[in-house]
Amino acid sequence: MQKFLVVCSGSSITLLEKSPTEINKHAGIGGVILFTAILAALSSGYALYSVFDSIWSAVGFGILWGLMIFNLDRFIVASMRKSGNFFRQFFAATPRIILAALLGIVISKPLELRIFEKEIDKQLNVIINRNKTMLQDSVNFRYTQLSGSFTNERNEIYNRINSLRNEYNSASSELEKEVVGTATETTTGKVGYGPNAKRKEELKQAKKEELEGYIAQMQPRLGELDKEVDNLSTQKQKELDAAKPTEDNYTGFAARMQALSELSKNNEILGLASLFIMGVFISLEMAPVLVKLISPKGPYDYLLDKHEYSFKIFGWESKEKMDVSSDERVTIHRKRSDRRIREEM
User: Fold this and answer.
1) Residues in contact with 275: Cβ distance below 8 Å, sequence separation at least 6, in sequence order
2) Which of 102, 135, 294, 329 is most buried, by the most CB atoms less than 10 A from its CB?
3) Are the beta carbons of 135 and 240 closer than 8 angstroms?
4) pLDDT category of residue 288 using cuts at 50, 70 and 90
């Protein structure tokens, strides 16, 4: 197990065997990398299960993501070198620290969704109802504008009909008062059917004919307007039924992330808990890099520098030997050419 954890840390077992005091440190770094990869696999598996709704796809992609995180963390830690002063090392490790923080955020979010699943489900219902209201208001506003001209024209016709009907009713009332003998500004106050009553009856008949004529004239147009308004109302209802969000089509990963974001803003305790969970995963992801950054240079680092430097020296010597050999071959070839020329001369 110790050797396996050392392999997970990206360190050389051969060099660590020469410096046994460093084995526990590198095994601990390898353990953090291993368990971070396992948590990443679980996190991505849950996230992908909420997307694909297939356990086998989620398991496959989760394992693939965990292996990728494992290899990336192993490379980040193994590529760090203890050379130069602290500030130089920190400057070199800054991109690795930023990358580790981003990976910690990515790993923590799906697990946060799982931890706060019950609260998120309740918030999803709130979001669904809010979206329904917003959709209804938007569609109603748009169709109100579309049907505005038809509705206004129809209202003008009905207003005109009501005005004519009121004039007819007023004429009927004036005729009745004239016949009964009710004294007003427009009646004589004499009982019976006289000339003034006859004129009022003629006015009443004229108003009746005008009302009936206008109704008969506008009836086809009212039918067309009612049909247009009914068609728009039917289209509006179909659009509302087809586009309104439901619990079945609004439970994806993005919707849950939106619900978690709103819960974090509205609930301080939940927001603080979410922040701490994310901080824990960021700390786990950054721990190997920070441990290697702040730890003093140990025997393993000196052995690694010596091992790499020996390869540099070997490379330089090989290059020098190749250069010397090449120069010798050139010199020999030149001498042979000169000798051949002299012999020919």
Assistant:
1) 264
2) 135
3) yes
4) confident
- Token duo for residue 263: 């819960």
Q: Where residue 298 falls among pLDDT bands split at 50, 70, 90?
A: low
The string of DSSP codes covering 204-265 is: HHHHHHHHHHHHHHHHHHHHHHHHHHHHHHHHHHHHHHHHS--SSSS-SHHHHHHHHHHHHH
Cβ distance 107 to 281 under 8 Å?
Answer: yes
- Three-class secondary structure of residue 295 per DSSP: coil
Among 194-198, 221-225, 233-237, 275-279, the least confident range: 194-198
- Whole-number Cα distances in Å, 226 to 155, 212, 223, 233: 11, 20, 5, 10
Give the residue from 32, 11, 76, 93 showing the smallest Cα distance to 303.
Answer: 11
Name the DSSP letter for residue 123: H
| pLDDT classification of 138: cutoffs 50, 70, 90 | confident
Give the list of residues 6+ apart from residue 332 with CB closer than 8 angstroms, or none.
Answer: none
**Residue 250 near residue 70, CB atoms below 8 Å:** no
Distance of CA 291 to the CA centre of its chain: 34
Map tokens 């939940």 to a residue: 270
Alpha helices in the chain (DSSP H): 2-9, 13-17, 23-52, 55-78, 86-115, 117-146, 148-180, 195-243, 253-266, 268-294, 299-344
Going by the DSSP 8-state scheme, the letter that residue 21 receives in this structure is G
DSSP state letter for 124? H
